[in-house]
């Protein structure tokens, strides 16, 4: 008889636990009903505003895409960050206004340093040094077509950089 009572007590306890678990599942399930729609919001896409030249003491000077909402920090990171020689107390940012007829800034091949010339498409360090050597030997360039006289620069290379350079005196 004692075995029967023991068995019935455990059965009753198990039955109460099952009812509690089922009731808890129903209550939790009703709070997180699948009939309610899930809202997903995406950040607005960055729209391309144009291009920007990043030079100076950055690791990879050059022309980069500029997107709506880009910060100065993001633009500098796009250029590989600043070098160890960068003086962050002096930063100059020049932005030409839209609709003012502003022309894009061009690189003056008569005064540009080697690292600036090397950033031009297809020039690199060797051709940049050749441009500077030619400039030192022959004097200032009078016309951008004179670059054809520089060793390693042909018509294709000149056409690729023509829109980025000037020979202002």
Describe what you observe in this structure.
The chain has 169 residues and is of the alpha+beta class. The chain folds into two domains: 41-102, no CATH class; 106-169, DNA polymerase, domain 1 (Orthogonal Bundle), CATH 1.10.150.320. It has helices at residues 2-31, 72-78, 114-118, 124-138, 155-161; strands spanning 48-54, 62-67, 107-108, 165-166. The strands form two sheets. A two-stranded antiparallel ribbon has the order 1-2. A two-stranded parallel sheet has the order 3-4. A hairpin with a 7-residue loop joins strand 1 (48-54) and strand 2 (62-67). It starts with a helix and ends with a strand. The mean pLDDT is 78.
List the helices and strands and how they pair.
Elements lengths: L1 H30 L16 E7 L7 E6 L4 H7 L28 E2 L5 H5 L5 H15 L16 H7 L3 E2 L3
Parallel strand pairs: 3-4
Antiparallel strand pairs: 1-2
- Biggest beta sheet attributes: 2 strands, antiparallel
If you consult CATH, what is the topology of the largest domain?
DNA polymerase, domain 1
- The topology string of helices and strands comes to HEEHEHHHE
State the secondary-structure class.
Answer: alpha+beta
CATH homologous superfamily name of the largest domain? Photosystem II 12 kDa extrinsic protein
Helix content: 25-40%
Given this structure, which CATH class of the largest domain is correct? Answer: Mainly Alpha
Per DSSP, the total helix count is 5
CATH architecture of the largest domain: Orthogonal Bundle
- With strands numbered from the N-terminus, the spatial order across the biggest sheet is 1-2
Number of domains: 2
Q: How many angstroms does the end-to-end distance come to?
A: 115 Å
Shape annotation: rod-shaped
Number of strand elements: 4
């Amino acid at each position: 008889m004692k075995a029967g009572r023991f068995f019935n007590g455990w059965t009753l306890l198990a039955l109460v636990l099952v009812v509690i678990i089922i009731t808890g599942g129903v209550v939790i399930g009703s709070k997180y009903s699948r009939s309610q729609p899930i809202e997903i919001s995406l950040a607005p896409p960055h729209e391309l505003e144009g291009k920007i030249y990043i030079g100076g003491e950055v690791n990879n000077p050059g022309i980069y895409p500029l997107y709506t909402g880009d910060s100065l920090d993001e633009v500098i990171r796009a250029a590989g960050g600043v070098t160890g020689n960068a003086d962050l107390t002096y930063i100059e940012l020049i932005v030409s206004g839209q609709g003012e007829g502003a022309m894009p800034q061009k690189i003056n091949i008569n005064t540009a340093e080697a690292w600036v010339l090397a950033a031009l498409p297809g020039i690199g360090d060797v051709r940049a040094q050749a441009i500077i050597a030619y400039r030192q030997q022959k004097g200032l360039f009078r016309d951008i077509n004179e670059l054809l006289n520089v060793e390693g620069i042909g018509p294709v290379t000149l056409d690729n950089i023509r829109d980025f350079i000037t020979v202002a005196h």
